[in-house]
Amino acid sequence: MQTSKLYLLLCLVAVMTSAQNERNTSNVSSKKTELTKPKLTVSPSETVWEGDDVTLSCKSESKQLEQTKLIYTFYREKEPRSQIILQENKILSIQQSHAGMYWCMVEAKERTAERKESDKVQVTVNESPMATLTPSNTYVYIGDRVKLDCKIDGSFTGWKYRWYKRDKKARDEHFEKFTENTYKFEAVTESDSGVYLCSAYKADSPHFSKNSSAVTVTVEGRTAKLEMKAERTDGKIFEGDQVSLQCQVTGNPVGWTYELYKTTDKNQYETKAESTFTISSASLSHRGEYWCKAVKGTLYFSSSPVPLQVSESPMATLTPSNPYVYIGDKVKLDCKIDGSFTGWKYRWYKRDKKARDEHFEKFTENTYKFEAVTRSDSGVYLCSAYKADSPHFSKNSSAVTV
Ligand SMILES: *[C@@H]1O[C@H](CO)[C@@H](O)[C@H](O)[C@H]1NC(C)=O
Ligand SMILES: *[C@@H]1O[C@H](CO)[C@@H](O)[C@H](O)[C@H]1NC(C)=O
Ligand SMILES: *[C@@H]1O[C@H](CO)[C@@H](O)[C@H](O)[C@H]1NC(C)=O
Ligand SMILES: *[C@@H]1O[C@H](CO)[C@@H](O)[C@H](O)[C@H]1NC(C)=O
């Protein structure tokens, strides 16, 4: 009994199945259950980068219908409960604004009443990585070395770089031949002043970075100046003085060399890596006009000429208070330096019988006094002056006989 019931049921199922198959061949759209629920797939993936080309595919598994007779429509949820119909199922260069919920609908061509919708798929669009432009310096001088570094946030490899310089019309000129991540100027010129930006691109995804922010590089001109430094506060230079001539170039002096010239002399006086030239003991032959040149590679700046005046050493004059004196007289010897000098000390000498000048080492005043002369004070005296803070001497006074 149990077995016969089961047999009957199996027979019924078999009859129904065959009837279905007959109708399948006779009339295509007469059946409502032929369309299966479609599936939306997103390629290359549901999470993509800005700029990727994204393709949406919708597939209904309907075996009984020829795919050509099916119409697919793609939708995007604009806001919850509002939708837009996409014109294309391919999005070229996807943007952030394209992110959202997508789904598709399939319908049979002959019978639009029969339609099926897919599940919704979230499409996420990652922002392109950011490019950052870092200059080694933004305020430089002609001839300086400048490096611009372009970097992409995140750990990406295999990028090439685009470099732009903004022109006067605010158009960004692309340095098409240059694709490295570092742009170097070995020696900037004034025309390198300007606004730079960079970005990066790659053959695979993500395809491009965002542009870096614009960076302004200002290139300043330079001038050279020759400055003369003497040890004396009044700026006067005497024979024997030390004189320094400093060639100064504006801006960063790294990598510059200096040349010193005398205008009357065609030949270069001296070349140096340091900017200061020192004449340790000026002589009258050093008199003249000097100028200098600051040099870096083929670039150079010349100073204006500066005069160097070397004065003869001041004269010391020895004056006795009385030309003829007698034993017991009070006598004063005055030593004086021509010109207005201060802070000098004095040297006193007395010539001995062998014509050697004996130096009174302990006495440095400008007046040498005898309260009461004796016979042995008779003799030849001379004086000179010197300054403690410089190796400078006055000329010796002429010898005075007392
Ligand atoms: C299929 O059947 C429907 C009615 O069920 C009819 O309207 C339609 O014309 C038929 N199509 C064909 C191709 O016979
Ligand atoms: C039913 O129709 C589909 C296509 O519409 C066809 O591939 C299939 O062979 C048909 N079934 C039978 C049993 O004829
Ligand atoms: C980056 O800047 C260049 C030059 O202005 C421009 O042509 C390009 O469209 C910009 N790229 C992006 C992703 O904004
Ligand atoms: C001045 O005279 C002294 C003593 O003769 C001598 O040693 C010195 O060199 C002289 N100085 C100058 C500047 O001639």
TrEMBL record:
Residues 1-19 form the signal peptide. One of its GO terms (biological process) is cell surface receptor signaling pathway. Keywords: Disulfide bond, Signal. GO terms for cellular component: external side of plasma membrane. Residues 38-124, 129-216, 224-311, 314-401 form the Ig-like domain. GO terms for molecular function: transmembrane signaling receptor activity. It holds the Pfam family Ig_3. InterPro entries: Ig-like_dom, Ig-like_dom_sf, Ig-like_fold, Ig_Fc_receptor, Ig_sub, Ig_sub2. PANTHER family: FC RECEPTOR-LIKE PROTEIN 4-RELATED, IMMUNOGLOBULIN FC RECEPTOR. This is Ig-like domain-containing protein.
